[in-house]
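Figure 2 data, in text form.
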Amino acid sequence: MTYDLVIINGICVTASDIAALDIAIQNEKIVLLAPSGSLVGTPATKTIDAEGGYVMPGGIDCHVHLQEPAMFGGRGRSADNYESGTRSAIAGGNTTIITFAPLQKDKISPLAAVHATHARAKDNCYCDYSFHLLLGNASATALQELPRLKHEEGISSVKIYMTYKALQLRDNETLSILLATRAHEILTMIHAENGDVLDWLTDQLELAQKISPKYHSNSRPPILEAEATNRAIALSSLVANTPILLVHVSDPKAALRIREAQTNGQPVFAETCPQYLFLTRDDLDRPGFEGAKYICSPPPRRKEDQDPIWRGLRNGTFSILSSDHCPFSFDDEEKGKKSCITHEHPEGHFKHVPNGLPGVETRLPLVASANKLKLTELVAVTATNPAKLYGLYPRKGALLPGISDADLTIWYPEGKFGDDVTLNNEMLHHDTDYTPYAGRKLRNWPRYTIIRGEVVWDRENGGIVGKKEYGQFVKRGSAVGVWDQVDKSGFNLEEL
């Protein structure tokens, strides 16, 4: 037979193993793994010689904000839509992303929010994609629609907020959501910062006229994250240890509390992001308005806080490394970071600066180049664990013949990319005018990105070679290996 695609001379890396293997692909699936060299000369429509480069399951970035409606009252608007965001994703080795379908506080139907998000994404995506429901209220209608969200729409995760007035839920609302998501095996993601304390600190900083970008960090000190993380874990334990996933964790003390809960057997999972591995709060104190480029939430912490976050990726405290891609152009005075600059505030006001960083394209290259994770750990936190926790596995995040989609990232062989490549924004494919990681040295970059057997990124021969309508929406099931460990007897008031 003639295969659609054969990859020879690669070093295959999964979350558990490393082996020199050739790969055959047919009808969008991996169909054969064979000893290295054994498929040389095999009939195929296309053959790629990996030349000893690593071949990994395609990256899954499960925390990406694209083209969301205005929710926070400011003028900021995402610099990336689904076309530019997914274009950037594939250039960085990602084959699937999960974005957000936002249900705002004053809206009642999650299904309507999902349908509106489908309209923005359909036929505009270079890579495969899915949605989390961003749940801004706990209304009866919202909770009643969750079963249809899961079983009809294939969305098995919701995200809730403990901060931001536009989205913040009170503890009783959080408990109602946890009870409902538990009943339908929907994983609840939580942005854990104490919103009430944040608002109080912001008021104090305004009274003291401390409003330049660097004070974004002062308005959200680590204790806000540590306290909210502890509270989220406590609330989930109250509802019979309902599984939760803490997103974009930046604070080592929050990470310790998560580790403690995990050690005690609670189904508590966590994610961190490159901004907490490579940026610091000193970046927010750059001259003039430059610090606004680094405003995100939680903010980057101190240099000494980075090692504990790396350690958490290695020891399993963090199951997932996502980008939290949330792009705003810096020099755009209408919709970007500078939209908050006024005559009254010539250096802006930190609370009005559009909040977020671009990063979907740089996530994998930065972390691979840092060389602080084993290759198997890199695959685990950037592909396999996201696939398992968000119900994509083993279709995604694996290299299982006959089962897994042929979603692959092929890296340069050691030394062939170059040892002194400096990251700059001109290299990237997003629609944002800066990268917060400019000037970082890179040791490698994805050479090819392959989605369901199609080469969509070929760095040396055209770059973006895929089509924007190629990406498909992927329906997801329950988290793998999570819900079967949860007590089926459920929440019992008699046992409190």
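Caption note: The longest helix spans residues 222-238.
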